[in-house]
Amino acid sequence: MVERNDSADNGPVAFLGDASMRIAVVGCGYVGLVTAACLAELGHEVVGVDDDTHKITLLSKGQIPIFESHLAELVAGNVKRGRLKFTRDIVPASQQAEVIFICVGTPPLENGEADLSAIDKVARAVANNCQTYKVVVEKSTVPVRTGHELERILRVYGARSGFTYDVVSNPEFLREGTAVEDFLHPDRIVIGAQSEKARAMLEELYRPILEQTFKCPVHRNCVERPKPRFLATDIASAELIKHASNSFLALKISYVNALADLCETFGADVTMVAEGMGADRRIGHAFLRPGIGFGGFCFPKDLQAFIRIAERGGHDFALLREAEKINLGRIDHFVEKLRSALWVIADKQIAVLGLSFKPNTDDIRFSPALAVVSRLLEHKAKVRVYDPKAMEKTKQAFPQLTYCRDAYEAASGSEALLLTTEWEDFRTLDWARIRESMGRALVLDGRNFLDAKELAALGFEYHSIGRPKLP
Ligand SMILES: NC(=O)c1ccc[n+]([C@@H]2O[C@H](COP(=O)([O-])OP(=O)(O)OC[C@H]3O[C@@H](n4cnc5c(N)ncnc54)[C@H](O)[C@@H]3O)[C@@H](O)[C@H]2O)c1
User: Fold this and answer.
1) Pairwise CA distance, residues 452 & 253, whole Å
2) Looking at the annotation, which residues are catalytic?
3) How far is CA 93 from CA 59, 100, 458, in A?
4) 140 CA distance to ligand 1 centroid (A)?
5) Domains 2-233 and 299-463 share a fold
6) Mean pLDDT of residues grouped by 10 in the chain (471 residues)?
């Protein structure tokens, strides 16, 4: 691969020459949009497809409907270069593509299983309208054996036109908040395929990432980045790798949260316990921070779906059921801390800092912060909230809250302040000013994020998770 200068203002890009592929990405949400923009950035010709008209109108103008670092620049730049287009119409997009990525949502049904109806709809549209060979890639998170069903649907609906295809499972491991970086610098790329041809095409498609030879739009000056591992597997194993990984991380979080409760009972400090555990290289520090539990569009739903998948196969995955139970209990535990500090919650003004499920995203799906807010409303508290990016999305779900311009306005006159999402901005607030403005100087830190000693020195009553109360 060589570098070329695309145009004076666009700077050098990875030049893929013959290896550049025509790609359709179906579903332009957090995963699909990042996939489409990053593949275009690498030099592929990409069409993003979504059935949400409003989304497509915005995207076609180079604007993005979500907040994700670096994504707006990548979309706008590649739309301008003509390498990235958007449409509502899956028919021409899939007809012209060599590779079709399915990135639609797989939300939980009431029983916890993944709703695969969007995947089925896309598969039927592709099979009904394509005549030439396509590689159909499942990137959405799906239960093991979905690839098998996908093949069946493509075969049945494509039979009349003589459509030929291969199915590939290529699970996505990006994290919201660092999605572009994670996509371009992953730890591993997993390709589950039965067909050698399809596997080789995907390896070629990802070559600039596998060899880290592209000009990185995130770390402008980065030279050496570790090359990801390329894992070629069968389809079922690739599907299982995704659920197994997310469930393992969820287990780790629930484990440290259970430890935090033990620490509270016995007067130990979970931060020190986690530090001591994490120093063991076999364990590591990641995902050992206690708090009000995990949320978002991945861990809770993937854990539930994995439990249901196991059940369908006749296995009771009790270990995962316990992890889920511990996680659900975090909200009760946190609100009970508040109740015990305030005695009565009803009628009190409470400030909540952070609404998104984690920092650096506007995503509020399955946000623990909003679970806390719901409980406060059940207790009839007067809730004032602030979040740097997630206010607009929250307003639609909770119009009854008081939305504040900043953390200071939320805190002013409040009887307690709850920190529910660890946005970096909250660390550097003027806490002396906040102390002065609050009705009662009470802070409950649901993420063990703030400087406990500093807050105690300023005269706050400071509670956190799994650590002795200060002062
Ligand atoms: N969000 C994450 O961090 C993340 C990470 C890894 C994997 N995943 C998985 O990726 C998948 C997508 O997640 P997401 O967060 O991007 O979801 P999302 O809800 O943000 O995006 C899904 C998009 O698909 C579109 N869509 C639905 N049905 C469609 C159809 N028939 N035709 C065209 N477009 C359609 C929706 O309009 C939406 O824009 C899920 O399976 C999820 O579990 C998500």
Assistant:
1) 22
2) 298
3) 16, 9, 60
4) 7
5) yes
6) 34 51 97 98 97 95 91 94 96 97 97 96 97 97 96 94 94 96 97 98 97 86 82 98 97 98 97 98 97 95 96 97 98 98 98 97 97 98 98 96 98 98 97 98 98 96 91 65
Does the C-beta of 141 come closer than 6 Å to ligand 1?
yes
What residue segments make up the domains of the chain, in order of their start? 2-233, 299-463
Token pair of 267, please?
A: 């007067």
**In sequence order, what are the residues at sequence separation of 6 or more whose Cβ sits closer than 8 angstroms to the Cβ of residue 157?**
123, 124, 127, 128
How many helices and strands, by DSSP H and E, does the chain display? 19, 16
- Residue 106 Cβ contacting ligand 1 at under 6 Å: yes
- Rounded to the nearest whole angstrom, what is the distance from the C-alpha of residue 30 to the centroid of ligand 1? 7
Quick one: which atom of ligand 1 is closest to the CA of 175? 3
Q: Smallest Cα–Cα separation from 95: which of 148, 49, 149?
A: 49
Ligand 1 atom index nearest CA of 173: 6
The CB of 104 under 6 Å from ligand 1? The reply is: yes
219, β-bridge pairs: none
Q: Give the separation between CA 410 and CA 434, rounded to whole angstroms.
A: 9
Predicted TM-score (pTM) of the model is 0.92
Protein residue with its CA nearest to atom 13 in ligand 1:
105
User: Residue 52: CB within 6 Å of ligand 1?
Assistant: yes
Tell me how far apart the terminal alpha carbons of the chain are, to the nearest angstrom.
61
Backbone angles phi, psi at 87, to 5 degrees: -155, 160
Centre of ligand 1 from the C-alpha of residue 208, in Å: 25
Residue 34 Cα to ligand 1 middle (Å): 11
Task: Tell me which DSSP letter residue 448 carries.
Answer: S
Fold that domain 2-233 belongs to in CATH: Rossmann fold (3.40.50)
Query: Which amino acid residue places its CA nearest to atom 28 of ligand 1?
Result: 118
- 299-463: CATH topology: Rossmann fold (3.40.50)
Residue 22's φ and ψ, nearest 5 degrees, are -90, 125
